[in-house]
Amino acid sequence: MDQELFEAAVRARSHAYIPYSHFAVGAAVRAVDGRIFTGCNIENSSYGLTVCAERNAIFAAVKEGVREFAMLCVTADTPAPVSPCGACRQVMAEFHIPVISLTNLKGQEKRVKLEELLPYAFDLEGQENGQS
Q1: pLDDT at 129 over 90
Q2: Strand pairing partners for 30?
Q3: Which residues fall within 8 angstroms of residue 43, CB to CB, at 6 or more apart?
Q4: Could you say which of 4, 7, 43, 54 is catalytic?
Q5: 3-state secondary structure string, 40-71?
Q6: pLDDT for 17-67, tens place per residue?
Q7: Residue 7 annotated among the catalytic residues of the structure
Q8: Which residues does residue 16 pair with via DSSP β-bridges, in sequence order?
Q9: Could you tell me the CA-to-CA distances from 72 to 45, 47, 130, 132 in Å, in that order?
Q10: CA–CA distance, 115 with 97 (Å, rounded to integer)
Q11: Which of 5, 9, 99, 100 is the most buried if burial means most Cβ atoms within 10 Å?
Q12: Alpha helices in the chain, H assignment, sequence order
C-alpha cells in the first residue's frame, strides 16, 4: 500500500460534507511529478449536485495544471475496500489514471488497473474508431 497516499485520503475524508448520507469518503491522487491532491465527497440537498471524493481530488489536480497521474487512492469506513461510482470511473478514464487503490479504514487494499474498473470506457479514441 502507498501509505502516504492512503493517509492523505484518510485526512481528506475528515472534511467530507455529508449531512444526508453520513457516508464520508476521502481520495488522494498522485501526479506523475509526485504531488498529491486530495478530495472528499460534498453532498447537496439536490442530490444530483453531489460530488464524489475521487472527482474532487482529480479536479483539484487538473485545476493546478496536472494532466498525468500515477495512482489514485480512495477510502471509506466500509467492511471491504470501497469501490468508486460509475461517474468517478469515467473521470479516471478521461485522465488515464493507471492504478487505483481501493481501501477502507482498516487498511485493507485492493489495487486494480483502470481497465478492470471500467472496461470499454467511453473515450475519444473509441469514438474516433467508430466504437460506441
Answers
A1: no
A2: 36, 71
A3: 17, 18, 19, 20, 21, 50
A4: 54
A5: ECECCCCHHHCECHHHHHHHHHHHCCCCCEEE
A6: 999 999 999 999 999 999 999 999 999 999 899 999 999 999 999 999 999
A7: no
A8: none
A9: 28, 25, 30, 27
A10: 10
A11: 9
A12: 3-13, 53-63, 86-94, 114-117, 124-128
